Amino acid sequence: MSTQPTKIIAIIGGGFSGAALAWHLLQKPHAPLKVLVFEPRPTLGSGVAYSATDPNHRINVPASRMSIDTAHPLDFLEWLEKTGKSQHDPDARQPDGHLYPARKVFGQYVAARLAPLLEAQHLRHIPSVVTAARKTPKGKWGLTTQAGDIFEADIVVIATSHPSPRPPTELAALERTLSAATHPVLVTDPWKPDAFRTIKPADRVLIIGTGLSMADTVATLIARKHKAPLLAISRRGQRSKSHSRTPTTAIGDFLSPPASLTKTLLQKVRAAIAAHPDIPWQAFLDRVREQAPEIWSALNHTERQRLIRHLRPFWDTHRFRISPPTENFVDAAINSGQLRIQAARLIKVEIKGKHFSITLQHRNGHVERLKVEAIITTTGPAHNSILNSQPVLKSLAADGHIEMDSSGLGLHVTTDGHAQVGPNKDSSLFIAGPLARGRFGELMGLPEVTAYAEKLARTISTQADRSVLEDAASLS
């Protein structure tokens, strides 16, 4: 009696997006599946976001809203209580009872959920980087790793992370001339281990960017007993907003009908908030977040570009909220006068001995010159360099399998997650996680990434089932 052939699914990238997809694929598969996850880190599920070792880098939403499974939204919270992790970090629990544990703890939770699948050998972790992915003569995929090994797969899923932040033009040339062991110090990737090792407590620091990464940077420096002044700048000088001090539930409707103009959308949101002054604004923004895919799909290319150019900075600061423990670090530094946050841009920087001589232009036109011993960039991902950010993406782009979405936020994908180039989709190549953001508008928060992983898992499982039936029919 013949057995059904096993379909091999290769997931490139083992951060949360890839780990969640693997977990959902293997819950109750119909067709026999073997899932390979290519991830150079020693464990699956952490990625850039949840591999941070600093205990002051915390999740930005309560643990009760984070889970690998939308059908069990309290899974992470229950795991924290069951394992006792919630008792080891008293600063995580807030007066309202919500928990904001360290990010690395969430990574440990995801790894724990994957452990049984690894032990049963349904899931295989390959700790290597994929350098190329090409179609074989048989129509399958051949994946080449950095070690020179070649793996074959029926379906490939790109679940890699965002490209690293790109330093401002004024700093790019200096980066190549500085030694990591000497002063002044330039940190262009604050997420690297020991990124701040050579920054001394007495070093004056310029931080470029004022969002969540800036807040994490300040928390780390303060926890390291940093004493010197900190200056954080961005074009608008906006900080990430706080969570509501009172419990909120998403409210409002921004789809009846959906706005076709960015201006109209903004007016609808403002009107809803103004009409209910007794309800925290976070409740309305949470509803916008829920309805974001439909809101985004109603906008044409011109309006999407207008939204990205004019509203995205405001959306990001209201949507990606700071955790209360991290906010306490930032507020204390501001109140003590150690931290200043200003609307300005860097227009000139020079190395003068062991310090930088920098020139800033403030939003009001005022020019300021000052000296600092360290510069840290905390700007967002370099979306426009996605195709060149990793060898495998270069390989796929060169062979015509992937392209950028017209929004510039991610890769071009279909509504069901297939990679798309022009009008054509590749039925055996999928894009998972935030790299699919261009199609859906909002795909950065963990709840959205989880829901999208579940959707992809259903699509891939259905496709695998159909493929098995077709293979069986061809053999009969």
UniProtKB/TrEMBL annotation:
Pfam families linked to this entry: NAD_binding_9 (PF13454)
Annotated transmembrane regions: 7-26
Membrane found in the keyword field: yes
Record's keyword terms, sorted: Hydrolase, Membrane, Transmembrane, Transmembrane helix
Coiled-coil residue spans: none
Keyword Membrane: yes
InterPro entries with a match to the protein in the record: FAD/NAD-bd_sf, HpyO/CreE_NAD-binding, L-asp_N-monooxygenase_NS-form
Sample GO molecular function, one term: hydrolase activity
All copies of domain FAD-dependent urate hydroxylase HpyO/Asp monooxygenase CreE-like FAD/NAD(P)-binding, residue ranges: 10-162
Protein name: Hydroxyacylglutathione hydrolase
Annotated source species: Acetobacter tropicalis
